[in-house]
Amino acid sequence: MTIIHTERERIEAAIMACDTCFVGMTDTGGEPYVIPMNFAYLDGTVYLHSAQEGRKAGIIERNPNVCITFCSVDKIVCRDPGVACSYSAHAISVIGWGEVIYEDDFDRKTGILNLFMKRYTGRDFTYGAPAVRNVKVWKVALEKVTCKETGVLRNPHKDAPSDL
Fold first, then answer.
1. Is there a contact between 110 and 40 (Cβ–Cβ < 8 Å)?
2. What domains does the chain contain, in order, with CATH numbers?
3. What is the pLDDT of residues 72-109, one digit of tens each?
4. Three-class SS of residue 80?
5. If DSSP states are collapsed to H, E and C, what string results for 119-164?
6. Residues 12, 41: contact at Cβ < 8 Å?
7. Taking the CA atoms of the chain, what radius of gyration do you get in angstroms?
């Protein structure tokens, strides 16, 4: 069974449960490009960072529209252990769409970099001016978001394993 979540708190909890997001973009020739990235999140905005130059930066310069996917798989569940098609992954996924805007202000970039560091290390850091200047900080205000939970069992088989 699939559940569609629309509550902001549930969507944000699903996003924050992930360590990595997958950013999809389209190059000018229509070629899709999807990359895993670490991220920070605050108030409906996803923050990403990259080098100043490279394939990602080049694609975004030409087409700033992105699709970002977050997914956490909890466990494998099943309705009947003897039926292969009854197995499913219990997972929550969030897909969001928005446009990349680069943050160029030094102090705001520093604050965003601290969002990353706080998220992944629990600490604040100080940064040298070259380090801040040499990183490209992306802001993506999520304009549209979907959140689905799959593999939800209404009446799981009493002997069904909770993990495989």
1. no
2. 3-150 (2.30.110.10)
3. 877 777 777 887 877 777 788 999 999 999 999 999 99
4. coil
5. HHHCCCCCCCHHHHHCEEEEEEECCEEEEEEECCCCCCCCCCCCCC
6. yes
7. 19
